[in-house]
Target: Acetylglutamate kinase
Amino acid sequence: MSDTPLDINAVSPAIKADIISESLPYIRKFHGKTVVIKYGGNAMIEERLQRSFARDVVLLKLIGLNPVVIHGGGPQIDSALKRLGKEGNFIQGMRVTDADTMEVVEWVLGGQVQQDIVMMINEAGGKAVGLTGKDGGLIQARKKLMPNKENPDAPLDIGFVGDISSIDPSVVKALQDDQFIPVISPIGYDAEEGDVYNINADVVAGKMAEVLQAEKLLMMTNTPGVLDKSGQLLRKLSAKTIDELFADGTISGGMLPKISSALDAARNGVNSVHIVDGRVAHCLLLEILTDKGVGTMITS
Ligand SMILES: Nc1ncnc2c1ncn2[C@@H]1O[C@H](COP(=O)(O)OP(=O)(O)O)[C@@H](O)[C@H]1O
Ligand SMILES: CC(=O)N[C@@H](CCC(=O)OP(=O)(O)O)C(=O)O
Model:
């Protein structure tokens, strides 16, 4: 983020036209392709950036790409819990979710957070539709048990946190075909047990990109990308380096499920996977339509 922001009004029309023209090869390359965008709760805290996100998504749709948005909302859930006198608690980047917390999660993600995104995209000229994993049988889930380092035979039960058992993308494809932009909350359900589950949004984004065989998965967050021990941005990360960073504790908290999901997607047919800085205005356009990357690329 060392770049000095450009005063766009000071740029001559000829240069603006040149910049627009530069995106032509990318538009041709990605026309008709699906791009899964993970919009993290930490990346959506400033209204100016929310509006630039919404405009970028609409622009991508209008030039012929198929954006699918998976949104998070971790900090927004934390605020709602706080108002109710409850503290958020995470294990290995996953929220411990008791029945009361699950109610709040559904209420925040499927309600305010999702509707704000839908509204902003629609105000920018798109046709966004909000879904949760329950809609159209989109995300089937089962209870997740977390690995227990101290006692591998006794995995940890963290409540209503789900693993994805399957994704049926037909509702997403139908919406895409009708020029809608799906905006999906990371909530799954178990049709047999009737339980609803809280799923980490990075996990949903990775799996959705895989199932849709997306061209790109972009995970927008609140860091320049993945940082090494000394805080330097790592522009490219392969499986081997990721193992080392996990082992020495350089990657922690919310970055754990993000990297694991990104790597799974890269291994399972998603052409390019990037963790990008959602605090940079128009980071989506920079990543997709220019040579200038704005984060870390994950390769298998
Ligand atoms: N090596 C690392 N590089 C960058 N961020 C890291 C790293 N390890 C842990 N993090 C943390 O991961 C956070 C991003 O994950 P998370 O809080 O879940 O964001 P989001 O809401 O965007 O999914 C960063 O803000 C940072 O605090
Ligand atoms: C199981 C689990 O941790 N679920 C997440 C779902 C929201 C999310 O992932 O939001 P961000 O992308 O903003 O972190 C949570 O409850 O916070």
Notes: The radius of gyration is 19 Å. The pocket of N-acetyl-L-glutamyl 5-phosphate (ligand 2) is lined by residues 40-42, 72-74, 77, 94-95, 105, 161, 186, 198-201, 254 (CB under 6 Å). The chain has one domain: 31-298. The CA atoms of residues 143 and 162 lie 5 Å apart.
